[in-house]
Amino acid sequence: MGAAVARGDILCFVEDDAGLDFDGLLEAIKDIREDRQSFYWATEPHILIIAREVFFSMGGYDERYGLPGNWDVEMRERLKFYGYRMKEFPYDKIKPKHLRPSVWNKKRFYRMQKQLTLSYLRYRSFPLRRVMWRKNPLELARRIIWALEWALIQRWRRRSIFTR
Question: Which of 26, 43, 90, 117 has its CA 20 to 30 A from that of 97?
Fold first, then answer.
């Protein structure tokens, strides 16, 4: 919804618990304005800086991937799959940091592993054996269940924006 009502030509998605340097962020936005075939991505906290037309041509976020924090991971893999270039995030200029305690981030790790697994399988970012195989048999079983869940249930859900 926010992207649909935004007026700018560059969209910047920042997690709600992120602290950052505003001047550095403006500089990164200017870089994307000059090179619209690329995007900036930060892992912790999740920050995505992308041209508006690219975001909407890709269909926006895929809400089938669970909670909002997980949509970014899928979007990053989709952009790379369709040939957009991920620029090295300027951590030294933007200085992003989580403002919530680290205990909250540890709870989020499990959800993120699920979304990474599904995104890697869908866009073939990594070889199947690297994505699925783990030394711990329980971890392997968990990833097989995630893949089956996606194949049988999640991928047939409707999206709010339909493309690709």
Answer: 117
Please report the DSSP string for 20-50 in residue order.
Answer: --HHHHHHHHHHHHH-TTEEEEETTTTEEEE
Tokens matching residue 6? 């935004």
| Residue 161 within any structural domain of the chain | no
Please indicate, yes or no, if residue 126 is contained in any of the structural domains. Answer: yes
Residues 130-150 have a mean pLDDT of 80
**Helix, strand, or coil (residue 115):** helix
The range of the structural domain enclosing residue 149 comes to: 2-156
Nearest in space to 147 (alpha carbons), one of 124, 125, 114: 114
Number of domains in the chain: 1
User: Is 164 part of a structural domain of the chain?
Assistant: no
Confirm whether 162 is domain-assigned.
no
Does the pLDDT at position 162 exceed 90?
Answer: no
pLDDT band at 59 (very low <50, low <70, confident <90, very high): confident
**Cβ–Cβ < 8 Å for 59, 163:** yes
Query: DSSP class of residue 153?
Result: T
Work out the number of other CB atoms within 10 angstroms of the CB of residue 106.
9
Pairing mode of beta strands 47-51, 10-14: antiparallel
Closest Cα partner for 64 from 122, 140, 127?
122
Residue 54 CB neighbours (<10 A): 18
pTM comes to 0.76
